[in-house]
Amino acid sequence: MKTLFQNCKILVRQQAQFQILENACLGVNGDTICYIGEKPPREAYELTRDYSGKLLIPGLYNCHTHSPMVLFRGAGNDKPLEEWLTQYIFPLESRLTSEAVKTASEFAIMEMLAGGIVSFTDMYFFPEMTARAVAESGIKANLTKHIQFTAQNPEVIQSSLAFVRDYNGAADGRILADFGIHSCYTCEKDAAAQYTALCNEAGGRLHIHLSETEKEYHDCMAQYGVSPAAWFADIGALHARTAAAHCVVLSESDRALLAQNKVNVVHCPTSNLKLGSGFAPVPELLEEGVNVALGTDGAASNNNLNLFEEMHLAAILHNGRLKDSTIMNTQSVMQMATAGAAKAQGRENCGELKVGYKADIAALDLDKPHLLSGYDERSLLTYSAQSSDVCMTMVDGKILYENGEYLSIDKEKVCRDMRRLLQK
Ligand SMILES: [Zn+2]
User: Ligand 1 centre and the CA of 274: distance in Å?
Assistant: First the structure.
């Protein structure tokens, strides 16, 4: 099936800069972008769509979340982090079932698709159920059966390996299965080292939490005599296939470790601010050549899965800290939300609107009072747009969400199941 979007604006990259094509056409053949241009294509299309007044952008990537935690949205809000975790989240998680994870994953996917997200990186329990939700919905995801509390559950390493073996490349390659180490404070170093060696031997990708809080940093120093970044470097876990979420508390030598080892850093500003942790030194990391992506973290610490908010914060936060309005810009933030993120997930030919790339596309309806600019329309994306401006989300050439409707998800059923779960 060949579809042509016409009369739209298209965000493309020319000479490494994002530019907007006016009154342009984008053709999709199967799962791939086959045409982009300001002139209509010569070849025929089976379906043409008039997208006047709309802007096509590369679909967004949420590179760190715990999608089923939409179940716990609002639990223990405004409590100190330790109390929030031990008094609210851990007890709730102890009652989780695989069915609840399936429904909550579907619910989270609905929120992400409606906000233009085409792919997410998840770390949570029962990832087999999230994989089913991903496969059925049509979205992309990097999933992991991560290891934690390895002393109590030594078998977790084997089940994590089995998950990678069984799920990597599933759903026509939409699902990538990563290795995952929850953190240096929930895993014994020897077990984490043994697991990392297996990951590296297999050439696997690794998803970790790194240096989220001062407490984590100081506890690691006290227990091991090294920083969390050095702890992960010691076990061989810092490399180009590693995505490290948070990276809030970093010394200069920690930053050098991340840069030298080409680690992908996932900036989660809302979660870090809400939990009073601070935020990652993104300008410094970018300056040192680190690839940075964006994540919402789970909905219990955000409290939504809205990447436009993360883009907005990433664009303004660091200027405020460094008292310089030129530090961050739309170009660097859009790179973090799209192409940089695709790289962090290890997805080739993704993250950009370009002929030959996967047709992972979000459309914004620009016919809104807050989206009219006579100047730089690109900057609408980071300073003005809301996730609710997304009117269409396409993954691998299939429209999964359009104008409030889901084409692959039974919205009423998922909402009904979710309400039933929340009542329990
Ligand atoms: Zn997290």
Answer: 13
Contact present, 64 and 268 (Cβ < 8 Å): yes
Kindly report the CATH number assigned to the domain that includes residue 388. Answer: 2.30.40.10
- Using the predicted structure, report yes or no on whether residue 343 has a pLDDT greater than 90: yes
In a domain, residue 13? The reply is yes
What is the per-residue pLDDT across 91-102, written as a single tens digit (0 to 9) for each?
999 999 999 999
Q: Are 53 and 196 found together in one domain?
A: no
CATH number reported for the structural domain that contains residue 337 in this entry: 3.20.20.140
Distance 225 CA to ligand 1 centre (A): 24
> What is the tally of structural domains in the chain?
2
- Which H or E run includes 363? strand 361-365
Say if strands 2-14 and 17-29 run parallel, antiparallel, or are unpaired. Answer: antiparallel
Give distance in angstroms: CA of 201 to centre of ligand 1: 26
Residue 7 CA, ligand 1 centroid: distance in Å: 40
Q: What φ, ψ does residue 228 adopt, rounded to 5°?
A: -55, -40
Measure 367 CA to ligand 1 centroid, in angstroms. 35
Report the separation in Å between the CA atom of 246 and the middle of ligand 1, taken as the mean of its atom positions.
8
Same domain, 292 and 248: yes
pLDDT digits (tens, 9 = 90+) for 206-226: 999 999 999 999 999 999 999
**Same structural domain for residues 178 and 259?**
yes
pLDDT tens across 227-279, in order? 999 999 999 999 999 999 999 999 999 999 999 999 999 999 999 999 999 99
The verdict on 88 and 145 lying in the same domain is: yes
Residue 40 φ then ψ, to 5°: -65, 150
State the Cα–Cα distance between residues 160 and 227, nearest whole angstrom: 26
Assigned domain for 236 exists: yes
* Whole-angstrom distance, CA of residue 193 vs CA of residue 340: 28
Instruction: Give the range of the structural domain holding residue 294, as residue numbers without chain letter.
Output: 60-345
Residue 245 alpha carbon to ligand 1 centre in Å: 7
